[in-house]
Amino acid sequence: MLDEIQETGAEKLRKPFYLLILVFFALACSVAIAKQGFAIGLVLIILPFLLYSVVRIFLDPRFGLFLVFGFSFFAIGISRYVTANIPFGLAVDAILVLLLIALILGRGRHLQWKMASNDFTVISILWLGYTFLEIANPEAVSFAAWFYAMRGVALYQILMVVGGFLILKDKKDLKLFLMIWFALSLFAALKGFQQIQIGPDKWENAWLDAGGAITHRIQGKLRAFSIYSDAGQFGAAMGHVALVAAIIGIGPGPKRRKWILFSIAAFTTMGMLLSGTRGAFFVPVAGAMLYLFLSRNFKVFIVGMIFAVGVYGFLKYTTVGNTNYQIFRLRTAVNPSGDRSFQVRLENQQKLKVYLSNKPLGGGIGSSGNWGMRFSPNTFLAQTPTDSWYVKIWAEMGIIGLILHLLILFYLLFRCCNIVWKLKDPELRQIMLGLTAGIFGIMAASYGNGVYGQMPTGMVIYLSYVFIFISPSIEKSLPLRPSLSK
Prior knowledge:
Helix content: over 70%
Number of helices: 19
Largest sheet: 2 strands, antiparallel
Radius of gyration: 24 Å
Shape: globular
Strand content: under 5%
Number of domains: 2
Structural class: mainly alpha
């Protein structure tokens, strides 16, 4: 009884103490913002969360993996709201490195390292090794450009893959992954609706005025870009979610969950259309074709093919809906010959073909695109848009790098298809079908836009691979249920 009274008294003393700390901290932040500006105040506000996150990562590395996954959705878009030159993208690196240290030091002796000992890890190491060889590329002009660009090309992949294999184990992890991905994607879709229906906020307008309008205001029409780097990334990401949610939704499961998934698919499809990104159209199309093949249902495959041909014919041979800007932009995806921007892309690829004819290793990682404009703005590659992810790999890493990259991608796709084909649990197999189809859809869309290695799509893809690879072990832990083939 006395112990309970003492504990209650101690708790009463703690509450005012905690409140006093919060008041003091709020005052400190207010003074800092008033005297030093918003940037320092933001640092002070974030600092307690950073300290908490560091401690939590060491106690629970799973928290760190999902933290970096969630943060990747905001790492680029948040820079529009902070005038200070804070490299938020490097925060992803910091969390991943911290996660790796926590795994080695905190739980190293208890981890099943054999889970990461597979062909996917070997391939990721091989690809990372090639990017390091690119440091010696005689055409490369900037080591800083290589450092910043190689992260999205190879570093994030190896860190997410190894971390994923060591941490992710069961269906609870899979459900959490899908929940975070779908929830943040819905938020991104809402942000896209706001930009089109209400208009961009003042920070987004400032970004547009600083140069973003060149590619995001076409003939007076705004292309939604949401919280992503650009409209191309936003559109592909929305198409990716719509495809996976729809595939999972048509599989086995309670009706309530099906309606939620179909609603997510419908909402994100609208987001894809608002982006005005023609390349995003190929995410659900290519992904759906692979799904129909892997579904092992001949009737569904035939119906799906007829529907796909019907959609293609509608866009290719009719003008119905052209008064709607989003439908008009989507229609140009199947009528590229009359589209000037497509012709410019072909012209740029011809220029690159001549330039790279005697450069089998390319012009160096980070020599094109934004990194090229930042670190070597007066070079040919920096001033020649690559647009496509594969053209970017070709331009920076040469024909050798492009062939190696494509071999890796198609090998991984084949492995995923082989794994999914053998799964027996209906619900798990349907989810893996969705993830595999999503990967192929992004691969297809990456010909038109550089979406594959961009955040957050790259992070989604890497974890999708991991879950597909570990799905046989997840299936073994599930209760036996009839397979889809019966």
